[in-house]
Write a structure and sequence with these properties.
Blueprint (H helix, E strand, L loop, with lengths): L5 H4 L5 H14 L5 E2 L11 H10 L13 H8 L10 E4 L1 H13 L5 E6 L3 H9 L3 E6 L10 H6 L5 E5 L11 H14 L2 E5 L21 E5 L12 E4 L5 H11 L5 H10 L3 H24 L13 E5 L11 H12 L1 E2 L1 E2 L11 E5 L4 H12 L4
Parallel strand pairs: 1-10, 3-4, 3-5, 5-6, 6-7
Antiparallel strand pairs: 2-8, 7-8, 9-12, 11-12
Helix pairs in contact: 3-10, 5-6, 5-9, 11-13
The chain binds pyridoxal-5'-phosphate.
Length: 378
């Protein structure tokens, strides 16, 4: 049997997806599962986008230019202050954006800071590309946000991935925090990759990195606010000097983002009323989740300023009873039919004491899941 190359074989799993597979297997076996493990809207493609897709199916859907459909790039550029559409490329989701950003900005072996807890695919994509993720632990002391001091403590860095709102903590970087971080990065020559995929789903204003640092490489996507995870479409805003390089990488690695998804994305940009309805529902879900967790004795949580997650510390099960978070999540799935994601996905050092709950689903399911957890006897 062929074995994978050592380097590729060492890339860790994305536990949220792995947990979601186990949950799906349980459902296939006829059990009911309450899904709090995956950050995925349960709502369909916006109505306007559906109509545009139906119309597009009458025509040839071939390759687009590597950078994407011009009207879509134009509309996306207008979302920022003073960004030329030539700097915007449509990509196959934020995930493709990470590969393009990391390959464009860093040479093999480059040291790139990743906030822990943070979205695991930053670290794992960096590893897959032969780069060196440098963990920057954050905690309650700084509201789970990175600071210039924490960056400095990580040693020399070629780059940093900043996510606001963050997955899993929901932390939003306010204007002061962003100004301090971008000033530090500019002074130290640290390149910034900014993940703004959860903009639009916030409890407090989330300033755009580009308003503080015009040379940031910004990544965003239609997956979350626009409810389009399966359409695999997002965008990047690229610093002036590297537009050609990103375009060449896109041509060679991906050719272009899926044409039909670009058509859908362009139409979805006008679906404000429908999408604000979803955002309102997440706001209500957040309160259901926070109340339900508190009633279950789970009160030590990160800010939950945005996105649709609550990252919770569970010492009553982990440190006190020795049930680390992966085992805890598997037992909850098995014994309660509640799927959640173990913190080890997001934080290698401390994640065994934490669990992430996604409140993207239905309020009734969230309330029921919390009741089941509250009634659980380990
Ligand atoms: C912070 C963050 N960035 C990126 C992604 C992946 O986004 P996409 O579906 O656009 O590839 C996710 C998915 O959960 C995420 O949470």
């Amino acid at each position: 049997m062929i074995e994978a190359a050592v380097h590729a074989a060492a890339v860790p799993p994305f536990h949220a997806m792995a947990m979601s597979r186990v949950a799906a297997e349980r459902e296939a076996a006829g059990h009911r599962v309450l899904h709090l493990e995956i950050g995925q809207p349960s709502t369909p493609l916006p109505r306007l986008a559906r109509a545009a897709v139906e119309d597009a199916l009458e025509h040839q859907l071939g390759y687009t230019t590597a950078a994407g459909l011009a009207p879509l790039r134009q509309r996306l550029a207008e979302r920022y202050t003073d960004v030329d559409p030539g700097r915007v490329l449509v990509v196959g989701g934020a995930s493709a954006g990470f590969t393009l950003a990391f390959l464009t900005l860093f040479d093999p072996g480059g040291r790139v800071g990743v906030i822990e807890p943070g979205y695991p695919c930053y670290r794992n994509t960096l590893l897959a590309l032969g780069l060196r993720p440098v963990p920057i632990p954050v905690g309650d002391e700084t509201r789970w946000a990175p600071t210039p001091d924490l960056l400095a403590a990580a040693g020399p860095l070629d780059g940093i991935v900043l996510a606001s709102p963050s997955n899993p903590t929901g932390t939003v970087l306010g204007a002061d925090a962003l100004a301090a971080l971008t000033t530090h990065c500019r002074a130290e020559g640290i390149r910034i990759v900014a993940d703004e995929i959860y903009h639009g789903l916030v409890e407090r204003p989330a300033p755009q990195v580009l308003d503080h640092h015009t040379e940031a490489f910004v990544i965003s996507s239609f997956s979350k606010y626009w409810s389009m995870t399966g359409w695999r479409v997002g965008w990047v805003v690229v610093p002036d000097g590297v537009v050609d390089t990103v375009e060449r990488l896109q041509q060679n690695l991906f050719i272009c983002a899926p044409h039909v998804s670009q058509v859908a994305a362009l139409a979805a940009l006008d679906a404000t009323e429908e999408l604000e309805g979803h955002a309102e529902r997440y706001r209500a879900n957040r309160l259901v989740m926070l109340d339900g967790l508190a009633a279950a004795g789970i009160a030590e949580i990160a800010p939950a300023d945005g996105a649709f997650y609550v990252y919770a510390h569970l010492p009553q099960y982990t440190t006190e009873l020795g049930i680390e978070s992966t085992t805890l999540c598997l037992r909850w799935l098995d014994e309660l039919g509640v799927a959640a994601t173990p913190g080890v996905d997001f934080d290698l050092a401390r994640g065994h004491e934490y669990v992430r709950f996604s409140y993207a689903g239905r309020a009734e399911d969230l309330a029921e899941a919390c009741e089941r957890v509250a009634g659980w006897s380990p």
